[in-house]
Amino acid sequence: MQDLVSVVTLGSVYLLFALGMSITWGTIDILNFAHGSVFMFSAFSASLVLEQTTLGLVPVLLIGVAVGALLSVLIQVLAFEQILRRAKDRRSAEMQILIGGIGVAIIPLAIAQHHTQSNPFGLNASSFTVESLSLGGLRVTNIQVLTVVLALALWAAAAVWLQRSRQGLALRAIGVDAQTAALMGVDRRRLALVTMAVSGAMAGLSGVLFTYSLGAITAESGDTLLVKAFACIILGGVGSMLGVAFGAYLLAAAEVVILTQTNGSWVEAVSFGLIFLVLLVRPAGVFGRKEVRRT
Amino acid sequence: MSTSVPQTGTSGPPGPAGTTPVLELRDVAVHFGGVKAVDGISLQLESGLIYGIIGPNGSGKSTLIAAVTRLTPLTRGELLLDGRPVHDVAASRLAGLGVARTFQTVRLLPDLTVRANVQIGADARSGDEAQQRRGPAGWLRPRAASPAVAEAVARTRLEGFEDHYPSELSYGTQRRVEIARAIAMGPRLLLLDEPTAGMNQTERAEISALMRSMRTDGLCQLLVEHDVQMMIDTCDYVFAMNSGRLIAQGAPADVVQDPAVQEAYLGRKWRDHARSE
Amino acid sequence: MSDFFSSNLVLVQSTLSGLILALSIQVPLRMGVFSFAGAGSYGIGAYAAGILVLRYEFGALTAIALTVVGTAVIGFLLGAVISKLNGLYLAMATVAFDLIISVVAINGGELTGASTGLFGILTDFTMTQMVALTVAALALVAMSEVGRLGRRVDTVRDDPELAASMGINVRRYRLAAFVVSGALGGLAGAMNVLVRSTVGPLDIGFGLIVLALTMIIVGGSRSWKGALIGAVIFTWLPDLLTVIGEWQELVYGVIVAIAAILLPRGIYGVLQDGWRWAQRTRRDRRAAARGGPVVDDDGGLRPQEDEAAVLAAQAADQPHRELDQLSSRPQGAS
């Protein structure tokens, strides 16, 4: 049963992180490879602030959210918009955005590495402390509960936003057919900025929560998480909200099983192997819409 | 369904008895899901003649070309090239069998010069003399263009443009490079998908003259075109398509006056007209 | 010269292995195959050569030869499985492949030295051999950029459908990209481990992809010359940047980001454009002196009109008309 707690909390971290990536990829067609960098840098910024002053949980979370959103918008304006403006077709744009994301991600990483000398950093200076609770015989920490609640709440909110609101409708229209969306008078640029901000905020939030629950992370933590998030997204199917949640918890479950059954060093291979398997067996994912792609 | 198609079983103009057609289609169909883009077309093309296909937009002309060039899989039917079934071979093998085509849109490589773009066509020739003459160390002298390129460039009147890049040329000229590339392949069957779109009247006349000059080499050409005058001036025989089927065929001037053809174009227009109101 | 050479030996060695690594990712990219599998092949190559030398006492050249053949075969198998995927999906599958190699290295137990890696891989591998192997690999890659093969590679990348119509077996070329990438990655990894005498799991992670991409993006993605420029810059720059001091990582990052965003074809692409522009100016001046081609409405060039065709067009005296204009009946409300 204790394993189930691990699955749910780990899955929630993956969900929160992958959610932001899924939204930008599924709607504005941006697979943001700087997402891991944003995740890490938000937590890093919070730890910097905490070096100066002591803050409670909520202000620290807000710092993470604000830094994440700001950084993502910055990346969108300075990098992705520039690339899209110059790219000659969708195929080359896709490629350049991936490479541009990898390039941009170096900058926050370099700053954090420089400052921490590549040592792990944490949020211990916060006045909030992680405490263990006992719920019906299960040990959980307060931060685990918070992570699960926030992940599910934000996931539901994002799903409703995409499903119901005007902006969400417009975004889905872009995701399905960019040209038609443009004809419908959708302001692509503004929507893309909003989407990137939301996505970045989620990355920042998950960065702070993840750092709290692990105690400390390193500057490089974002890279592995990036590939795991990709695994979650394609497992469920690009663009599917149900799919990304399914992918996140399935990946977490698989990892926990491997962790408990072996000595643990194979855990990282699970997500990579899953990516392979899904791409070969069912490239559209479990819940994905069928996509017609040119060879 | 119009009854303009002769009911004699075979279609196509009378060729010399006993010769094998360059291209034969037997009941070719291409369906996309429920959409019958091409639905049971049979025809024969003889060497040394120019054929045309007309039909309103969406009538299946381009799908037919894609099917003949194996870029789109057939739902049913047979393709025979010089009597040999080719409906199962890979698209890339057709070039070696003498099939060349141009595309509806300009598809030149932007980073290559006109000469190199045309050379891509000559590269597809199995026994390109220039390649053989240059021998195993030929790659050391990449600039030596083959005679096939020089001839294609001359025929399309592109002399002086060999070192230009496509982006420097006018749209009509870019289309000539496309045609030159196809000619450089030394084909037996040349498929031209709206080759003169975007050209002015003089340029069209030039392309028409070029096509007619190539008939003497025994080349079989299939032209998809909207310009009726170009069709009448150029083609020996015309097929009219609508909704994936052949609705008429014969001498160009007769086909354009055919009531079924008029109906296909104007009926469609009328329906569109009615719907938009 | 030899003084410079010996005092900078480590940097020269890094440049050479870095260059081959960059090529292992550039070659597939140049064919439009978005594969990062070269980094994984580098990892396999480094470990395989190390193990062959350390555990089975093979000579340097034999170990390298076996490794390269092995990684080429692995490249072929990988390609056969995933070359049908497209764009991002292919890219991520190959990233996953690279990372799996790292995990395998950590879990290899005694064979791979687990998380500490392999040490003391000492051989008779000389600098001359390394230079010779690098030049040979470079020459083979350079051959694929000129003449008929070069044009075919360009066509496969820019327009696979056109390539098929031009008699090019696109699938075969894509598969070849995986094989060549595997062989080059294996070569780079093997050479590097033999001159460094050590390899660990941290040497073959995600950072390898970033390093290779960095070289290609900044140097130029369409030619081995670009990879060479990139390899030289990014092995020597950190050394020169010590002047800038502790912020070298950041400067590095900014350079890459700017190149990725503003110069998608890299420094070599800029040089190429400059050269083309100069050539064009010279040619246009000559053409203008001769009374050259006509500038069309769209600003592009076209040949002067053929008199016979002009006469023919006039004689026909028929305006351009489409079949749906044949009738005088009113037309659609378009």
Q: Given the C-alpha coordinates, what overall shape of chain B results?
A: globular
Strand content of chain A: under 5%
The total beta strand count of chain A reads 4
Number of helices of chain B: 10
Q: Would you kindly provide a written description of the structure presented here, covering whatever features stand out?
A:
The complex is a heterotrimer of chains A (295), B (277) and C (334). Chain A is built from eleven helices and four strands, in the order ααααβββααααβααα. Chain A is mostly helical. Chain A has one domain (2-221). With 277 residues, chain B is α/β, with parallel strands linked by helices. Helices cover 34% and strands 22% of the residues of chain B. Chain B has helices spanning 61-68, 91-94, 114-123, 129-134, 147-155, 171-184, 201-214, 228-234, 252-257, 259-275; strands at 23-32, 35-45, 50-54, 76-81, 84-85, 99-102, 189-193, 220-224, 237-242, 245-250. In chain B, α5 (147-155) crosses α6. In chain C, strands 1-2 form a two-stranded antiparallel ribbon. In chain C, a hairpin with a 5-residue loop joins β1 and β2 (301-302). The N and C termini of chain C lie far apart (75 Å). At the B-C interface, α2, α3, α6, α7 and α8 of B face α7, α8, α13, β2 and α14 of C.
Topology:
The complex is a heterotrimer of chains A (295), B (277) and C (334).
Chain A: H1 2-28, H2 35-52, H3 57-86, H4 90-116, E1 121-122, E2 132-135, E3 138-141, H5 142-164, H6 166-176, H7 178-183, H8 188-214, E4 216-217, H9 221-236, H10 241-261, H11 267-281
Antiparallel strand pairs in A: 1-4, 2-3
Chain B: E1 23-32, E2 35-45, E3 50-54, H1 61-68, E4 76-81, E5 84-85, H2 91-94, E6 99-102, H3 114-123, H4 129-134, H5 147-155, H6 171-184, E7 189-193, H7 201-214, E8 220-224, H8 228-234, E9 237-242, E10 245-250, H9 252-257, H10 259-275
Parallel strand pairs in B: 3-8, 3-9, 6-7, 7-8
Antiparallel strand pairs in B: 1-2, 1-4, 4-5, 9-10
Helix pairs in contact in B: 3-5, 3-6, 5-6
Chain C: H1 2-7, H2 9-30, H3 37-56, H4 60-82, H5 87-106, H6 127-143, H7 147-158, H8 160-165, H9 170-196, H10 206-219, H11 224-240, H12 248-262, H13 266-290, E1 294-295, E2 301-302, H14 307-316
Antiparallel strand pairs in C: 1-2
